[in-house]
Every structure is written in structure tokens, then in C-alpha cells.
Amino acid sequence: MVDLAELARQVDVVIEVRDARIPLTSAMPVLDRIAASKLRFVVLSKADLASNTGTRMWQESMRREGLESFAVNCRTGDGVGALRGALARAGAGKRWRAGAGVGHGMVRAMVAGIPNVGKSSLLNRLAGEKKARVGARPGITRGRQWVMVGDRIALLDTPGVIRPDHVDGLARVYLSAIGAIPDDAVDTVVVAGELLGILKGTAPEGLIARYGPDILDLPRDMTLSEIGRRRGCLGPGGRVDLSRAALAVLMDFREGKLGRVTLETPLDLESPVHDEPDRKETAPPGLQDHRRG
After folding, report:
1. Residue 272: its pLDDT value, please?
2. Which of 72, 141, 193, 246 is spaced 20 to 30 A from 82 at the CA atom?
3. Are 211 and 222 in contact (CB under 8 A)?
4. CB of 8 closer than 8 Å to CB of 105
């Protein structure tokens, strides 16, 4: 097991990477303790998959808490320059540390986060070339590696770890939906069903655009089956393969094909989201951005 506290003692800055769709559930509360004395940046990764309004709400909430945050799209590089600039400022004027093997103004930063939030993709963007292993499966970054960004920033990539048996309830649904918990460690049929129920209540436009306008009228226990039928997820005898249908729904969500959705707002810090929201209620404003085409 990686000793994050020991790693934190080796750096000047801690960069916490969270998924912009679930900034609360994808947070690492342990950093509040082990990085209390460090300069700390929060990166809201995969911002292109989250609602712009939702991301702005979270950034404003973090600003009030004294946290500097950056909305980043690692595929295009949007937001990376601002983070790189903040790191450069952190190192400006820093005195030489004897025996550290680094030069004037060098800053050391640790990139931390749960699995599959985009830590390695961020590191590669910062470094300007492919330095860290990147994959869709959580846990692909296994070793400890320092990566140089220019000659004055050194980044330490750390593996993300989640114990699936220690996560339950809505958090388990959210983490499974973004792929932070491996699909083979959860019941994907249950996860997809719960996710569809949530999206029916909070972000129905994406479901309508992807699966048809009548998808909202189906009972919850029939929604996944009907999606599977329409997507051709059929087994012997023409029966719907619910496991295939569930994976299709999860991939649609992970790839942004259900719209730009933020599943949590700063209000959830006080009022948790319900497991099964009523789809007739009005969704919080701005939690889904509409896409055309």
C-alpha cells in the first residue's frame, strides 16, 4: 500500500485530481490531514463531460474554502496551462535546497486521486509528452514515477486505490459509473439501473436524445431492458442480455453520450442526493448542458 503521508512529506505542492462529474465523492479526505501544511490545488478533470454551470458552482465553493481549483480537459489540454502557471509561480523565488538535487526555483508536486480520474493523463499533458501509462481501467498506474515539466517542476504520480468493499450506497453507484471501481467488482446491472433512475430525475434530456423520448415513461425496472432491446443487446432466443445492456449504458455515460452531467452540487455537502429522485421534479439548474448534433 502506498504511504501517501510519506510521499506528501517529499513535496511542496499536492495536486488532487477529482472527476468534475462527482467532485464530492471523488475527493480524497485524507489529504485534508496529510497535506494540511502544503500548498494544494484541486483539478476538476474530465470537465468536458460535466455541466459548465455545475463546474462553476464547485469552483466557487472551493474558492470560498480557500482551495485553488482548475477545470481541465486532458484530451484537449484546456485548463492545463493555468495549472502549469500556478505551479511555476509556486516555484518562483524558492531557494536552493542543499542536497536535494534540484535547482533554484524547483518545485516538487504530488499528483493524487482515486482511480480513473485522469491523473496520468494530466501528468502527460503537463509534461508535454506521454510520460505515464494511461488506460481506461482503474489502477493502471502501479509504480512510483517522477516526471519533469521543464527544468523547474518535478511531478510525482501516485497510484489511486479504492477498496470496493468499503464503499456503499450512492457513492458506490457514482464511483462505478465513472469507472473508478472496476466493472467486475460490482453488479453493473444494479449500477446502471440506479444511474438511469438518477438521470431520469436530474438530467433527462440526455436520455431522451440517446434512447428516445418515451424512455422516461417506462417503469424503472423496465428501462434498462428496453434500452438493451433497442441497442441490440440480445442473447439466445432474442432475450435481452441485461449485463451487455448495463455496460452499454455505463459506456454511454462515461463517454458523454448522455450529455454533460454533474451528478453532485455543493449543496450535497449539506443535503445528500436521494437514491431514487422523482423524475417529475425540476432538475437543479445547469446540471446538464445540452448538446446538439
Report:
1. 38
2. 141
3. no
4. no
Element (H, E) at 55: helix 52-64
Going along the chain from its start, the domains and CATH numbers come out as: 4-157 (3.40.50.300), 165-289 (1.10.1580.10)
Residues 6 or more apart whose CB falls under 8 angstroms from that of 270 comprise none
- Global pTM reads 0.84
**What backbone phi and psi angles, to 5 degrees, belong to 212?**
110, 150
CA 200 from chain centre, in angstroms, equals 21
C-alpha cell at 247: 455496460
Measured on CA atoms in the order 45, 48, 50, 51, is the torsion positive or negative? positive
The Cα 75–Cα 81 span in angstroms is 13
Terminus-to-terminus CA distance in the chain, angstroms? Answer: 45
HEC letters along 185-251: HCCHHHHHHHHHHHHHHHCHHHHHHHHCHHHHHCCHHHHHHHHHHHCCCECHHHCECHHHHHHHHHH
> What are the 10-residue block averages of pLDDT along the chain, 293 residues in total?
82 96 95 92 98 96 96 96 92 51 71 92 84 48 70 84 76 96 96 97 95 94 96 94 98 97 86 37 47 41
Which residue carries 493523463 as its cell? 121
Name the amino acid, one letter, at 114: I
